[in-house]
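Lab notes, practical 5.
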Amino acid sequence: MTRPADAMRIDEQERPLGARPEPPQGVVWRLLREKAQAGDAAAEETRRQVEEHKRALEDLARDVAGALHGLHGVTAANAADALPSLTHKLAKALEAAGARYLDPAGTPYEECRMWADVEGSEPVAGLERPVVRETLEPGVLMADGKLTQRARVYLAVPPAADDRQEDQE
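Output from the prediction step:
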């Protein structure tokens, strides 16, 4: 015969908890505090990014101002000497600001077709494939990979097949 279980005996599932549970208003206040701290951290990160971009813009402005200052005193006689240096300074300033100057003049069109728009073309004898003859407007590629301005180019292209046959006759 089995004995009936002792009604006063505490089972493992019924043992009291070691610590009191957090009251509901304590949970609410804790969650509100955590949310406020997360908002403060996000605002601080935004301020940091704004300051970083502001410094980059200030650096770009200083570099461009220096290059523009270099234009003072440039005449037709000394332009050939001064302009390559100024162009290099401006390109470096753009790179330092996180932008890359894309000037595809002289390169095969296949290498720049993803970021350049063709405005026109002209057949040139002796070519096997299209080449960028002139850059009408340079492209601008940002450090994050975003193309902010597509290049506009004018191409030198091989003569059409029927033109080549006429030249051979």
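Observations recorded by the TA: Strands lie at 99-102, 116-123, 131-137, 139-142, 147-149, 151-157. The CA atoms of residues 29 and 109 lie 63 Å apart.
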